[in-house]
Amino acid sequence: MVEVHLWSGLRALTGGLEVVEVEATDTGEMLRALTRAHPQLQAPIDAGVSVTINGRVIASGLTEPIPGGAEVYLMQRIRGG
């Protein structure tokens, strides 16, 4: 199981949950599992989110492995400029 920490704006879409547990081994599976568990997360995820694993922002797409016990955060998309 992966514990995914959500930014405050998403908590209203999960019944107030700050952390959601899902079965996943990589970032793509994690995002799909989140939307299966909480379909209302689909629109914000489709709009673009950033994922951090153990403090590292993942920019490599949907295949980044999530190691057991990892600290995972789903955040608003981080954009440079």
Automatic annotation (TrEMBL):
Note the InterPro entries from the entry: Beta-grasp_dom_sf, Mopterin_synth/thiamin_S_b, ThiS/MoaD-like
- Pfam families attached to this UniProt entry: ThiS
What protein name is recorded for this chain?
Answer: MoaD/ThiS family protein
